[in-house]
Amino acid sequence: TTGQVITCKAAVCWAAGEELKIEEIEVAPPGAHEVRVKILYTGICHTDEYTRSGKDPEGVFPVVLGHEGGGIVESVGEGVTNVKPGDHVIPLYTAECRECKFCKSGKTNLCGKVRATQGQGLMPDSTSRFKCKGQSLFHFMGTSTFSQYTVVADVSIVAVNETAPLQRVCLLGCGITTAWGAVAKLPAPGVKDSTVAVFGCGAIGLGVIETARTHGASRIIAVDTNPNKESWAKKFGAQEFVNPAQLGDKRIQDYLIEITDGGLDFTFDCTGNVNVMRAALEACHKGWGVSSIIGVAPAGHEISTRPFQLVTGRVWRGVAFGGVKGRTEIPGLVDEYLAGKIKIDEYVTHSRKFEEINEGFHDMHAGDCIRCVVDM
Ligand code: NAD
Ligand code: AHE
Ligand code: ZN
What we know:
Strand content: 15-25%
Shape: globular
CATH superfamily of the largest domain: Medium-chain alcohol dehydrogenases, catalytic domain
Distance between the termini: 27 Å
Number of domains: 2
Low-confidence stretches: none
Oligomer: single chain
CATH topology of the largest domain: Quinone Oxidoreductase, Chain A, domain 1
Bound molecules: nicotinamide-adenine-dinucleotide, ligand AHE, zinc ion
Family: Belongs to the zinc-containing alcohol dehydrogenase family. Class-III subfamily.
Radius of gyration: 21 Å
Domain Alcohol dehydrogenase-like C-terminal: 203-335
Cofactor: Zn(2+)
CATH architecture of the largest domain: Alpha-Beta Complex
Keywords: Metal-binding, NAD, Oxidoreductase, Zinc
Number of helices: 12
Enzyme class: oxidoreductase
Mean pLDDT: 97
Helix content: 25-40%
């Protein structure tokens, strides 16, 4: 069966730094090994704002942003076997082909199959499925969930339990999974009986705090320059909160080393600020402290520290999508949410209609928003 072009609404970012504009767009049918999805809900992640603002070196425009979505399969192209029309699905910005060198290594969740074209804003055949006013639009992160219909590669989608509310489990498409995996997938024994400091208490940082708590961390210190985040951090399981802006001349890393008898076992950067990344590394305990970078830094920004910090046994690492293999692991995370073992509802502070998506971006800047879910 040859599919038809679908006309629907999408939020288009025409140029870096511009607000999104709701436009009527045309969405081509899925090609071979592609899936067309009706997106019902999408979260807004700080990474969408990062690319919209022009700070992403991979940013291309005009583009349909969005990567934290939930929807229903509308149609599938030739050769698709992992999902079928009607399935409830979560698009995956980290694909899982199970065939490439990365997937077969057993060492990483990064997949090589579609990443190159994904980074160029294109489908795997190097073309786009989106058109607006006769002009081609770029895809984003292989997902483009800010459209009522999107097309994704079959390796970039997973079906989940249909009884799960998509307005909640869409957040497993990025933020909550990222945070969960960054902690839960550390090599054993992980954070059990260990001290942890979390820099940045947005959805990512709060998810790290929550997962550190459920995985038996003995002490969790939250760090944020926004004083309103103290109650949030404590609600999710931090015992202590430090505002680095209130330490006078003292550097945050020196303060943390002082109050922890030499530094933390584990630290996490959930800000994307390279100075914070340095502080998080240097707040680690000599000999064994491990610092994970989760935040995404603007184009041109680089990290630095004295190599002596690493020579003396601290480890600097980073993690994308929590190290999670989406097709294999997301269905289980959805079931854990349904069983009450993973929080999602608690992160949703704002809900917006599609027409108000720009307000959703403004909500993020206001500082009292953890996650905004947009009803498409
Ligand atoms: P957010 O903006 O909601 O949260 C960031 C928090 O950091 C805010 O509470 C802010 O007050 C705090 N902060 C800012 N500057 C600080 C400083 N100097 N010291 C301490 N705290 C500071 O963002 P989010 O959605 O939680 O995302 C956090 C970061 O993670 C972003 O950079 C995002 O792009 C990135 N991210 C990465 C992945 C991945 O796979 N690696 C996945 C999702 C998000
Ligand atoms: N395009 C940026 C890199 C952005 C980045 O690091 N993205 C994370 C996910 S952030 C989700 O909110 C990621 O998955 N990275 C691994 C990958 O393959 O992109 C740049 O600097 O070019
Ligand atoms: Zn994200």
